[in-house]
C-alpha cells in the first residue's frame, strides 16, 4: 500500500513524545465539543414550546437553521485564527461567545431576537467543534490521535442522542429557556478545563485578513443551506425559491474560488485542498455526513409510519445505531493507534455498510424486531469506522502549522454533505410519492413538517395504501443512502495516504 510522504516528515512521527495523560487532555477537549453538538439537537423538542410562547410557528425553523448556518461559516474562520494566534487562546473566545449568546437566547421574547442570538451562539459553537478537533492534533502525537478522535466521535454521537431527550425534559419541567441556560455552568467548567491544555510553542502562520473571502463564503453557505432547507419542506411551491437560492450559492462559490486563488492569506486554503489526501478525506466526510444524517432524520418516520412503532419504541430502536457508532469509533481509533493503518478500516466498514443498507432497502419488511435491531447495530458499527480516521488523515497530511485549517475543512465538508444528503433523500421520497400517490405525498409532507401528530385522520383502507406507498418510497431512499456510502467506499479505496 502506498504511504503518504507526510508520515516520515511529520515532526512528531519519529521520536514521538510520550502522550499526555488522558484525564489532563480529553476532558478539556470533550466538553466544548459536547456543548457545540448538543445545541444542534437540544432545541428540536423545545420548538413547539418556543412557537407557543412567541406565537410565530411558521418561523420556528429559523431557530435551527440559523445555528447551522453560523456554525458552518465559523468553522474555517476559527481554523485560520487558531493557526495564527494559538488554538487555546481562540478557544477561550469561542467559549465566552457561546456562553454570552446562550444567556441572550434565554432572555429573548421573539423569534427574530432568538434567531439573532442563535447566530451568535452558532458563531461560538462552530469554533468549539473546529478547535476541539485541531487541539487533538496539537496536543497528541500522530499515532495516538486516532484513539482520541475515536473518543471525540463517540462524544459527538452521544451528544446528538442526548440533545432531544434533555431538551424535552428541561422544557417540560423548567421551561424552554432552560435549554440555553444549562450551557452557562457547563461552559464555565469548560473554560476552566481549557486552562489545563498545554500551551502551543512553535511557529504560527502569519495572519492577514481576507474580508472578500469571508463575505463570499458567508453568501455561499447561507444561500446553499437555505436552499436545501426549502427543498426539505417537500412542497412544490418552495422549489422556485430554493432554485434561486441555490443559483446564488453557485455564483458565490465561483467568485469565492477566484478570490481565494488571488488572496495572499486566503480564508479557504485552496492549495491545501488540492492535496489528494485532503480532498479525498473531505469528500469522504461529506459522503459519510450525508448518509448518517439522512438515515437518522428519516428513519424515525419510517419506523412510525411503515412499521407502526410508537415514538418511545422508535427511540429505543435507534439506540443500537447510536451505540454501534460509538463502539465502532472507539474500536477503530484504537486499531489505528496500534497499527498506524488508516483507510483500510473505512474501506471494509463502508463496503459492509453499503451491503447492510441494501438489505434494509430491499428486505426490511421481512425483518422482525430482533433482526432489525441487529441490523441497526451493525450499521452503527460500520458507520463508526469513518469519523475519526478522516480527521487523523487530514491532520497528518496538513502538517502541524495547518491543523486548524485541516480540521475546519472536515467539519465544513461534513456539514454541507449532511445538508445535501438530507435534502436529496427528502426530495426523492416526496418525488416518488407525488408520482405514485399524491395523497401519500401530502401526508408525508405533513409528517416532515409537523411530526406524526400533524397526520390527518384516515380510514383503514387509506392508511394501508399510504403506508404501502411510503414503504416503497423508503426503498428508494435507503438505496440512495447506500449510494452515498458506496461513494465513500470508492474514495477510501483510492485514498493515497494509507498509514501514519
Question: Care to describe what's here?
Answer:
The structure is a single chain. Helices cover 78% and strands 0% of the residues. It is mostly helical. It folds into three domains: 18-206, Growth Hormone, Chain: A; 209-264; 269-500, Up-down Bundle (Growth Hormone, Chain: A), CATH 1.20.1250.20. The longest helix is centred in the last third of the chain and has 34 residues, at 403-436. Mean pLDDT is 82; it is low at 1-19.
Give the gist of this structure.
78% of the residues lie in helices and 0% in strands. With 500 residues, it is mainly alpha-helical.
> How many domain regions?
3
CATH topology name of the largest domain, in short, is Growth Hormone, Chain: A
Q: Estimate the strand proportion.
A: under 5%
What's the helix count? 20
- Report Rg: 22 Å
Distance between the termini: 12 Å
User: Quick one: CATH superfamily of the largest domain?
Assistant: MFS general substrate transporter like domains
Average predicted local confidence, pLDDT = 82
The CATH architecture of the largest domain comes to: Up-down Bundle
Amino acid at each position: 500500500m502506498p504511504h503518504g510522504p507526510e508520515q516520515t516528515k511529520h515532526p512528531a512521527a519519529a521520536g514521538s513524545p510520550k502522550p499526555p495523560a488522558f484525564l489532563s487532555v480529553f476532558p478539556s477537549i470533550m466538553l466544548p465539543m459536547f456543548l457545540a453538538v448538543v445545541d444542534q439537537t437540544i432545541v428540536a423538542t423545545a420548538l413547539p414550546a418556543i412557537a407557543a410562547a412567541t406565537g410565530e410557528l411558521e418561523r420556528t425553523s429559523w431557530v435551527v437553521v440559523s445555528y447551522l448556518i453560523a456554525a458552518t461559516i465559523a468553522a474555517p474562520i476559527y481554523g485560520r485564527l487558531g493557526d495564527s494566534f494559538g488554538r487555546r487562546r481562540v478557544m477561550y473566545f469561542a467559549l465566552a461567545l457561546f456562553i454570552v449568546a446562550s444567556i441572550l437566547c434565554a432572555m429573548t421574547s421573539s423569534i427574530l431576537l432568538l434567531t439573532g442570538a442563535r447566530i451568535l451562539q452558532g458563531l461560538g459553537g462552530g469554533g468549539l467543534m473546529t478547535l476541539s478537533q485541531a487541539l487533538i492534533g496539537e496536543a497528541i502525537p500522530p499515532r495516538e490521535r486516532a484513539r482520541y478522535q475515536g473518543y471525540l466521535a463517540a462524544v459527538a454521537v452521544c451528544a446528538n442522542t442526548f440533545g432531544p431527550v434533555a431538551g424535552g425534559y428541561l422544557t417540560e419541567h423548567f421551561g424552554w429557556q432552560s435549554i440555553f441556560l444549562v450551557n452557562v455552568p457547563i461552559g464555565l467548567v469548560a473554560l476552566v478545563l481549557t486552562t489545563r491544555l498545554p500551551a502551543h510553542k512553535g511557529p504560527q502562520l502569519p495572519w492577514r485578513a481576507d474580508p472578500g473571502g469571508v463575505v463570499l463564503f458567508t453568501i455561499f453557505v447561507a444561500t446553499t443551506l437555505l436552499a436545501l432547507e426549502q427543498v426539505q419542506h417537500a412542497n412544490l411551491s418552495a422549489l422556485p425559491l430554493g432554485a434561486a437560492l441555490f443559483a446564488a450559492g453557485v455564483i458565490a462559490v465561483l467568485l469565492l474560488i477566484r478570490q481565494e486563488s488571488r488572496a495572499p492569506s486566503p480564508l479557504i486554503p485552496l492549495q491545501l485542498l488540492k492535496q489528494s489526501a485532503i480532498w479525498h478525506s473531505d469528500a469522504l466526510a461529506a459522503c459519510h455526513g450525508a448518509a448518517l444524517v439522512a438515515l437518522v432524520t428519516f428513519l424515525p418516520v419510517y419506523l412510525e409510519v411503515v412499521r407502526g412503532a410508537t415514538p418511545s419504541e422508535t427511540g429505543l430502536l435507534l439506540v443500537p445505531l447510536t451505540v454501534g457508532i460509538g463502539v465502532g469509533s472507539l474500536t477503530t481509533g484504537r486499531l489505528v493507534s496500534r497499527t498506524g493503518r488508516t483507510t483500510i478500516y473505512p474501506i471494509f466498514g463502508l463496503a459492509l455498510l453499503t451491503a447492510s443498507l441494501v438489505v434494509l432497502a430491499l428486505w426490511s419488511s421481512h425483518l422482525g424486531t430482533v433482526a432489525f435491531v441487529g441490523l441497526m447495530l451493525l450499521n452503527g458499527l460500520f458507520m463508526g469506522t469513518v469519523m475519526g480516521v478522516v480527521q487523523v488523515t487530514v491532520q497528518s497530511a496538513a502538517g502541524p502549522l495547518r491543523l486548524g485549517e485541516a480540521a475546519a475543512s472536515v467539519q465544513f465538508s461534513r456539514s454541507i454533505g449532511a445538508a445535501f444528503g438530507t435534502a436529496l433523500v427528502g426530495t426523492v421520497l416526496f418525488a416518488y410519492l407525488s408520482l405514485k400517490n399524491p395523497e401519500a405525498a401530502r401526508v408525508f409532507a405533513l409528517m416532515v413538517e409537523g411530526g406524526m401528530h400533524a397526520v390527518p385522520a384516515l380510514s383503514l383502507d387509506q392508511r394501508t395504501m399510504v403506508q404501502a406507498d411510503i414503504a416503497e418510497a423508503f426503498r428508494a431512499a435507503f438505496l440512495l443512502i447506500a449510494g452515498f456510502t458506496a461513494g465513500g467506499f470508492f474514495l477510501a479505496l483510492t485514498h493515497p495516504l494509507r498509514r501514519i
